[in-house]
């Protein structure tokens, strides 16, 4: 059974895999942690053991130092050695007796490779193995130059006469003059075999150590388990640098090569004893430990598989019957076929949700439709059923109206609008409470509801719930709403009347602005009597249009709107129609020739009941009035252009008449003299008299050029009988007299010929 469920349902497979992965992870984590702890503990113990052994090795430095001091003191206590050391005559007998003493001392200490005496007074040197003065000269010069302490160490390689290989020695130099009154030209050289020191250290060597060596403070190898590395400079080695830099006298650490490095610094000599060991040599039973840990982990994992199967089989028993019931009919016996039980659950849940949603939606729509029918005039039986479902002593009707509905309808698609209305319905239901209100979407942009009212004739008093509802709708949907609350109702007829009064309340946004809350009873208390139609401002509006005073026009329209603000909604609409009719009668017959303006009147009249606020209708009224101003201005400009054209033609025809004047022209066009003067100058940018003189001077110029007529006769021909005045006008205009002008023109004509 468990095998079939694992094959069929992914939930069982996922659960089993989760158990297995969790168990495997825990086993791996525990195994790795235990192995790491064991490795760390073993390395620590081995490090402590290596450190302890090296501390024993460091005792070699103390032994060697003590032995060197003893040998030096014994030699300085010998009279023959001192005589030869400071003999200024280089007496061979003294040298012979001193050599005998040195060889006897060397035979006493087998680790001494040779002993030498240097006499600085005679610059002579003798050695028990026959090493010559020339061989030791570099060291002797260094001794003479240094001469800083009684005890000095020089690791080096020396060639012994009769031997083909160099010997690795540690030369200890004793300067007797440092602590006594002896001359400072002598020195005792004691050469100790490096291999002997290595043999002493090797006696304490840990069998697991791969390298065991001694270095000085400069990182120079003094002795090494690999003899060929004697005198090697290891100062650049990372491990040696770490040892030199640390202030600890002893310790151990691991490097990047899986090696354990142990060190001990000698307190007597400037030596450092170092051992380097590989982990694989330290943890000799590591492989056995690894295989043992792996075998134990596999055993535990095998047990965990059985536990995971048992948990998988029993953890989902409550779902087993549910999954079997969700299988499609006729497919309960499907063998090992794999199924997606999550898809089955999702399909089953979706089908159930759709059925419940459909049932709930149908019930909700039915309740809303019945509520709207009851408010708009249903029957008393509906009211009785409503009272049983929503009992209260008194009710009041609330209407929520979406502001700027036409704009909202044009900017949103049908689906978005439906979602917005449903959201407003849900928010109102949530804020007002299911026990305090019953709501319904009455029509597009309007939500009606019945709320529990307080006792008394007045409606429910304003509260924070309505303001919170307005605020939340605007924040979440960006939509402003106007709320109207009807009167309090106890009987069915009163409830229908309350709905009508609530609708009347929301209509008050036309006069008082959108986004407010209106209570029918309270609005009646503060209402004032209408002042009637504002005829005075209508006359001012018409005069402003005729005189093209646009700023005054806006001001007069604002005053007219203010005059009807205290009216009822329908009365204000009637007054608005009356004003538009007056404007149409006043301007249509005489001035309106543009069909678009006539269409604007028609559109304004047909949409006057669509405007939601007085401000909106005022803006449209201003737009219409300004279009009338544009039409008036265009008509006036056309008429004025014709008048000016007629005046100019009259002047061109009668310029030779001496009695031609502005009065004569004004009488010809049937206008006043002053009006014609202003009109002509406004359109021609020149006064009438200046224009008349300009025409006469142009004609006179043509006569002067084309004829030999005397100037006086030319002046009379153009209508100026005062020759002196003609001379003045001509010279002012052309900057020369008529005679000069004629002469200049004749000269120009002759030059051309």
Description:
With 753 residues, the chain is of the alpha+beta class. Strand 3 and strand 4 (166-174) form a beta hairpin. The longest helix has 48 residues, at 10-57. The protein is elongated, with a radius of gyration of 63 Å. The N and C termini lie far apart (131 Å). Mean pLDDT is 78; it is low at 329-334 and 524-528.
Strand order of the largest sheet: 2-1-5-4-3
Shape: elongated
| Structural class label | alpha+beta
Report the helical percentage. 55-70%
Let me know the average pLDDT.
78
Low-confidence stretches: 329-334, 524-528
Helical stretch tally: 30
**Nearest-angstrom radius of gyration?**
63 Å
Cα-to-Cα separation, first versus last residue: 131 Å
Characterize this entry briefly:
With 753 residues, the chain is an alpha+beta fold. The longest helix has 48 residues, at 10-57.
Defining key terms:
elongated, five-stranded antiparallel sheet, alpha+beta, 61% helix, 753 residues, CdaR_GGDEF, 30 helices
Topology:
Layout lengths: L1 H7 L1 H48 L1 H19 L1 H7 L6 H17 L3 E8 L4 E4 L5 H14 L4 E9 L6 E9 L11 E8 H9 L8 E6 L4 E4 L13 H8 L4 E5 L4 E7 L5 E8 H4 L3 H30 L1 H10 L14 H35 L4 H10 L5 E8 L2 H7 L2 H19 L4 E7 L2 E7 L11 H14 L3 E9 L2 H16 L1 H4 L4 E3 H7 L8 H12 L3 H14 L5 H19 L7 H12 L7 H41 L7 H8 L3 H12 L3 H19 L4 H7 L5 H12 L3 H15 L1
Parallel strand pairs: 14-15
Antiparallel strand pairs: 1-2, 1-5, 3-4, 4-5, 6-7, 6-10, 8-9, 9-10, 11-13, 11-14, 12-13
Helix pairs in contact: 1-2, 2-10, 4-5, 15-16, 20-21, 21-24, 23-24, 24-26, 25-26
